[in-house]
Amino acid sequence: MDMGKKKWKYLSHEGRPSIGSSPVSSVVIAVAGTAEGVGCSHTAIMLAQQLARTRHTVALYEANGSRDFERIECVHREVEYRSLDMSQFHIRGVDYIKCSAHLQMGELVSRGYDYIILDIGNFSGSAYFDYFRYAHISIVVGSGSVWNQPDIIAFYDQQADQDISQWTLCIPLATKQIVKNIQRLVPIEQIYALPSIPDPFAEQEDIEEVVRALVPIEHRNAPSNWLRRWIGKS
């Protein structure tokens, strides 16, 4: 599971997440899909649960308006599907925050989580996609099937004016040949083939390796500048 030319590095600081040599209050990870149904939420849950297993505090925010977290909560509580009153729930060390909470980034950061993961969902028309651009860690999830590869191409074409050098493309179940084919189609270096992970809540060796490769990274901007963007001071 080689990440290729990735140069990012994690440095711990008294048990807190760090970016480069500087500790930060919260590392923000945004996960966006090139289309619907490519595994964005599955990947976000996998990351959140593994980070919680490493004794970090983690929030997973449903930044997509899908209300899928309501279904997850009902399955977790073993009740028939219905809209439950609480705006968040807890599974194995992760706070799942529903889109109905309507939280701003400043509110999330003020809670002091080590990691905040934003499940952006399908990027197209998303009201939350700026969250993806400003996150410390930006992860794109796309399908490697031949008929879905145009979605990946369209995604990167639409980001032509963005600095995508630190974004990572994750393709579930992709073969080495699929990765090579996509590398010829889009101008990105960091493409990662995700292994088969049927249950994102379960602990397994493949998940540990994935998270070590993807999280966390050295950020390209100062954390203080990033936070000012969210709270509208710059």
Under CATH, the topology can be stated as Rossmann fold
Q: Which CATH architecture?
A: 3-Layer(aba) Sandwich
- Cα(first) to Cα(last) distance is 39 Å
Helical segment count: 8
Low-confidence stretches: 1-22, 217-234
Number of strands: 10
Which superfamily, in CATH terms, is the homologous superfamily?
Answer: P-loop containing nucleotide triphosphate hydrolases
Question: What is the SS-derived class?
Answer: alpha/beta
**CATH class category label:** Alpha Beta
Q: Describe the main β-sheet briefly.
A: 8 strands, mixed
As a whole number of angstroms, the C-alpha radius of gyration is: 17 Å
Question: How much strand?
Answer: 15-25%
Can you list the strand order of the major beta sheet?
A: 5-6-4-7-3-8-9-10
Throw out a few tags for this protein.
234 residues, alpha/beta, Rossmann fold, two-stranded antiparallel ribbon, 8 helices, globular, disordered N terminus, disordered C terminus
What does this structure look like?
The chain contains eight helices and ten strands. It has 234 residues and is of the alpha/beta class. It has a single domain (18-227), classed as P-loop containing nucleotide triphosphate hydrolases (Rossmann fold, 3-Layer(aba) Sandwich). α1 packs across α7 (205-214). The N and C termini lie far apart (39 Å). Residues 1-22 and 217-234 have low confidence and may be disordered. This is CobQ/CobB/MinD/ParA nucleotide binding domain-containing protein. InterPro entries: P-loop_NTPase.
